[in-house]
Amino acid sequence: MLKSILSILLVLPSFLIVAQNPGNVGTPNLTAWFKPDALPLGNVTAWTTTLSSIGGVTVTDATAPYPQATNTPLGNVSNYNTTLYFNANSNANLQSLQNTASINLLTNNSPGAQGTFFCAYYFPSGNPTANNHFMLYNNTPHAIQFRNLGVTGRLAIGLAATNSTNATRNWTERYSPAIISYKGNRSTATSMSAYQNDLLFNTTTASQSSGSTGLYFGTFPGNATAPYNGYLHEFIFYNRDLTALEMIKVHTYLAIKYGATLDNFGGGAQGDYVATNGTTIWDASFYPTYHKNVIGIGRDDSQALLQKQSHAFDDNYRLYISNLAATNVSNTGAFISDISYVTCGQLDAAGCGTVASNAEAPAGIQSRIADEWKVTNTNFTQNFNVDLKLDTCQNPGAFVGNINFANLKLLVDSDDGNFVNATAFDQTSGITFSYANGFITVAGISNAIVPLNSTRYFTLAYNRPIVYFTGNDSICEGDSSAITINIIDATGPINVDYSDGSFTTTLTNVVNGDQIYLGPNVTTTYTVLGSANFMDCCGASNDSVFVLTVNPTPIVVANASSLTICDGDSSQLTGSGAATYTWDNGVTNGDFVNPSTTTIYTVTGTSVFGCVDSSTVTVTVNPTPVVTANTDNNNFCIGEAVTLSGNGATTYIWNNGVINNVAFTPTSTATYLVAGANAFNCVDTASITITVNQLPTVQANASSLGVCVGQSVTVTGSGTTFYVWDNGVVDGIPFVPAATATYNVVGTDVNGCENTDNVTIVVFPVDNFYLGPDTTICPQDGIVLTANKAFASYLWNNGFTGPQINVNDNGTFILTVTDDNGCTYTDNQTVTLGEDCFHTLFIPNSFTPNGDEFNRYFRTTGDNIGRFEIRIYDRWGELMFVSYDINQHWDGSFGGKICPQGTYTYYVIYTTNSGTDEKLKLHGHVSLFR
Fold first, then answer.
1. Which helix or strand (DSSP H or E) is residue 357 part of?
2. Widest CA span in the chain
3. How many other C-beta atoms are found inside a 10 Å radius of the C-beta of residue 347?
4. Burial class (CB within 10 angstroms; exposed 0-12, middle 13-18, buried 19+) of 522
5. Helix, strand, or coil here: 682?
6. Most buried pick, 55, 215, 303, 760, via CB within 10 A?
7. What tens digit of pLDDT does each residue of 52-92 get?
8. What is the rounded CA–CA span in Å between residue 757 and residue 747?
9. Residue 395 and residue 397: Cα distance in Å, rounded?
10. Strands (DSSP E) along 452-503, which ranges?
11. pTM
């Protein structure tokens, strides 16, 4: 959805005639110049043309989020100048500047239509969409659709009935500062000319512009993938076709300002940079190998260009006046002259020395970096500065260090970039060197070095004396070595830097032959710092390396195979940790010794490097104990526990898994051995035999294995001589078990050995049954009495032996049953005859509803009547009366009127209170008299 509509603001055309304008190509045809220089930093809600011959044009963003005006974008992608940043732009969170009015900026749809368009921008790689719209302009049928489609960009113009290859040009996106422009119309295959960084590109696809009327930066209204994510620097519109020279001037303006390198592919004048007065400030065809990362600083008042500092897009070198600042506008320097420029390009080679670059150097120069720069001075009469990125080559990206600026040289060649005949400038020539964060700064480059209106070539060189260490290169730990400092190519005292890999040490006022003492704790490589890891990685390095090996003092250990021995034993003595060993007391390494008393032995060990250490070991001689094996009883039954104990020592170890003084259960007669050790671990042994008797076989018996509740049983044991039962049972004495249980017996034989057995006596559960509760019956109904479960046999008190009997008289009926286990059980039920076993029902055969007090109602009466229903019909079958209450009467009326005299038919359905639900029916006639 469009976010806002703003009007076109009008300004007086007379003002435009003298106004500053891009390339100074004129203002009458300049319809819109959007440049961000004056925008407040932060949220951009509106952007108005700096200059417009049709009146001021404003695009707005009505709602957050907004594009951001910034002059310090990441990586200074706008060359220290202000730019608009569209970040995380999406249709859901749209950042877009828009004007929905019809604006006549240019024409491009038909033959003869004219217009020229420029845009300077930076499009980062890895954008979230592949349809980023830089700009959409539509004043039907004239239009521009300017967007990125991933690796390809597309510029499409005009609105017509069909797509056309005449209307579209595609370019390959380089993801670096860029300028896209075009002029002409879509009428023929050659009537439109499109440029990428001033180079004509002709790749085409059948397409054209489309979309809503108006001017839109950062989106295509209604397109789901249109939001732009990147930087937009400037937009310029003309309503005429600029000439080739005018195009170059505007391209030069944008390239210098935003750090874009104009493309010189094809040679000749292609890629030249031209000032507003027509002066060529960079000749691309003059040694074109330097046409890489072309940047410039300059002042050109007619187009409001005041670029005080610039840098290569990859920031490998910088060009500036005064002091480099965070932004171009905050640089405090000033240009002396209008239309004055310094432009620079490079080979873009290594930022360190190579074999080839070191060979191409004037006499007396040891090393120079491989990268070279071409610089052109145009009417520039003051000093400028450059920052040059150095590299270690061996470790790309690492910072160099330990630079003696007195040894730095700026090599300047005046003709062809061959530095064999270059002039070397150093800090005595008026320039100064400094180093920070990987960059050498060369400050104060004057016309003496790069003359006015000339082109020169320069690079960096470095000279340093050769220094190296000599001396004893091997010591033992704790010792030191006298090191001699050797210096070549130095006429007086110098400072010497050397590094141990962690720290750098500076020795001052050193002359050849001076000595220092080094005593590191570990083997250390000392690097005497020359130009290695600075400018010279591939030629002869000025660094030298001295390795001082620190041999370890051996850690000698005197070893004894047994540090403590018992009287009469021996121990072997050996040394470890060295190469050779010498013992005292006449011992040879590896000998066995058997001292009679405690003795100290000393060994001295020597390593293969001659380093010495010593150690001692004490062999202690201890007495041997006298051990006995003991127990409280030697005769046991199998399964019983026995405890064995040793005596005469401190600790004891038994065989067969026995633990001293811990009970265990032997399985058979056996002899047990014990080894006892005293406090000195000297050992003696003893033995003892334990006899194990087998257990007797015991049998548990019962007079019956199953009894009914209340019956007795007798249990007896067999197989031994004495028996003890659990649960209070006595062997051979009858008892009545209360419930099913297992009875255990312990039998003891003549050896006192016991064994057990058991027998289970089952007490059959009570198999209760139930005849039911006492009941009352009517004689005519009767009742069936039956047991509630099945049994083996039945006996009623009336002699009947079946499971059930029929009863229709009162009395008590007793049933005795026998179950499958032979156990008997009894239950009874009393039957009583009920008093309400008979019913009566009276229905009258006539009544006289004549108003007197006699027989005026049809009344039914009865005893022991349950449910009741009566219906009375006249002779035509019409229902006159219905009732469900035996006590309700009929007054002989129907519908509120007394029925006529006559005979009426009744039907009765009822039940009795005898306990059944049988329905009884009656019907008859009743006479109604008046």
1. helix 355-359
2. 170
3. 19
4. exposed
5. coil
6. 215
7. 999 999 999 999 999 999 999 999 999 999 999 999 999 99
8. 8
9. 6
10. 455-462, 466-471, 474-476, 481-488, 494-499
11. 0.57
